[in-house]
Write a structure and sequence with these properties.
The structure is a homodimer of 300-residue chains. The two termini of chain A are 27 Å apart. Chain A is mainly α. In chain A, strands 1-2 form a two-stranded antiparallel sheet. In chain A, helix 1 packs across helix 3 and helix 8 packs antiparallel against helix 9 (176-201). In chain A, a hairpin with a 2-residue loop joins strand 1 and strand 2 (104-105). Chain A has 15 helices and 2 strands. Chains A and B meet through helix 2, helix 6, helix 7, helix 8 and helix 9 of A and helix 2, helix 6, helix 7, helix 8 and helix 9 of B.
Chain lengths: 300, 300
């Protein structure tokens, strides 16, 4: 009986969220010149918001292989830089045109579009600056592996490619395999990077990563189905962003394609399956198990 | 007497331009799915245009230290990915709002704004994917050095930071030191990366890079002054982009601050100074010398 699960997850979330904020404070210290507005925009988007799910997953993955906290934290910071940059760009008028993010005005609303584009571009670079630093890992081979994986997960073969597919969803009727594929790229790729990060940092051979990849695939999809459910059932005050947007835009989602009840069932099945992929691990995988449970329990 | 200079430069330019196009053809092979529009937009921006000055500078820098052609080409490809992504984003309506680039419609005009933002973001990732690949350099330490330098040159401490300063130029009256600083970041940082790339690839120690940095600083500034002169004197049919935009926007430039004649003199002085920084090199630096001369001779 695991009665301590909620506490353990809550504690890990708080620790990571606070540490990521401190890291962003350092990373985004503004020079005293005409770039202060750029740094202010990056800080607005990056500091004090979000669940920091991806850095948390990196930390949980590092737990599996006894990777040190600084390596885990810096790798989590890099993936969060990518995540935040993508939110800034996705919120732009030409993309999803959102006014609200994490309960605050989006960057282009709080500042302006040009600043938002540049703030996203800069966080994009900072992700790689963080990874390439010796403090992330002493071995340049491991740093190269991280950079290779993150560049792939965020570019046209990952997140940005998925966002492009999503943009066509308003004009092309999506079926279930297409929605699944789009989500695997758009949100799944960065989650998969986060799950694998511990194995990369520990230089674990490929054949010992198979279970982790299964876990990542299932949790990523469960996370997205839960997101679709929140978009239908959520409260903007709790989620901190606009809700009901997918339906209004006529976009196919898991929920619109298979209905709420089946979507919820499917997400639960995926979570059970994700945890089954961790069978070869002992208590060192408990945080990953808690995270799997959390994906469908969260309210925002 | 160096009578062969123009031919040598022309030949090198053609070789590099053709090789970069072939590399882009391979890198941007489109998957057969909903991302074809994204790849088409990247190809529109990346293939068959531009002088490929930065890859050419990388090649010239590699000549100094006998770095192989594939390493030089792939490093040049990476810096060109960054350059092209920055052109796509800078041309957006929220930024410089340009309709024409390299004689073709800009990406957001040929496609749409959302696609342009994502195409830029993807080329941004591809730059790092290219650098991190073993084919760029067998030693992961050298690859990390390249990635560190390129991320710094393109982010808030380099190109994107300079673009942010440039955005404030319409509302803030710039003096000469501010214009110089802005240009050092906006265009100088990527040129400096390109000049140093050969030394990084050859693992040349820091103390042997001083002259190269002097060369980079002077050539970068000369290049920008020449650009400002072209904006005043150029012909849109030859330059392939809109001209007279800086003056129309009331932006301070080298030309508006010190006048055409003095700007031209200053650029010539910088080119002579740049070449003087190469005094310790023999004929292996001839291409870098030709490039310095070319910065102020070019018509587009």
């Amino acid at each position: 009986m695991r009665v301590d699960a909620p506490t353990r997850l809550d504690e890990a979330m708080t620790t990571i969220a606070e540490a990521i904020d401190r890291q962003f404070e350092q990373l985004l210290t503004s020079p005293d010149d005409l770039r202060t507005r750029l740094y202010a925009a990056m800080r607005h988007a990056a500091i004090g918001g979000g669940k920091r799910m991806r850095p948390l997953i990196v930390k949980a993955s590092c737990d599996l292989f006894n990777v040190g906290f600084e390596s885990a934290l810096r790798t989590g910071l890099a993936v969060e830089c990518i995540h935040v940059y993508s939110l800034i760009h996705d919120d732009l008028p030409a993309m999803d045109d959102d006014d609200l993010r994490r309960g605050k005005p989006t960057v282009h609303r709080a500042y302006d579009e040009a600043t938002a584009i540049l703030a996203g571009d800069c966080l994009h670079d900072l992700a790689f600056s963080v990874l390439v630093d010796e403090r992330t890992h002493p071995d340049p081979f491991a740093r190269c592996e991280l950079i290779r994986a993150l560049a792939q997960a965020s570019g046209p073969m990952g997140m940005a490619g998925g966002q492009m597919m999503d943009l066509t969803a308003q004009t092309t009727p999506f079926d279930l395999p297409t929605v699944t594929r789009m989500q695997q790229l758009k949100t799944g790729a960065l989650i998969a990077f986060s799950v694998e990060a511990g194995a990369i940092l520990a230089r674990v051979p490929e054949d010992r990563r198979v279970g982790l990849r299964g876990y990542a695939r299932d949790v990523g999809l469960a996370f997205q189905i839960a997101d679709d459910l929140l978009d239908v059932e959520g409260d903007a005050h709790v989620t901190g962003k606009a809700v009901g947007k997918d339906a209004a835009a006529g976009k196919a989602t898991f929920v619109s394609l298979i209905g709420r009840d089946q979507a919820r069932e499917q997400a639960e099945l995926l979570v059970a399956q994700a945890k089954a992929h961790l069978h070869s691990f002992g208590s060192e995988a408990d945080l990953l198990r808690d995270i799997a449970d959390f994906t469908i329990r969260r309210t925002h």
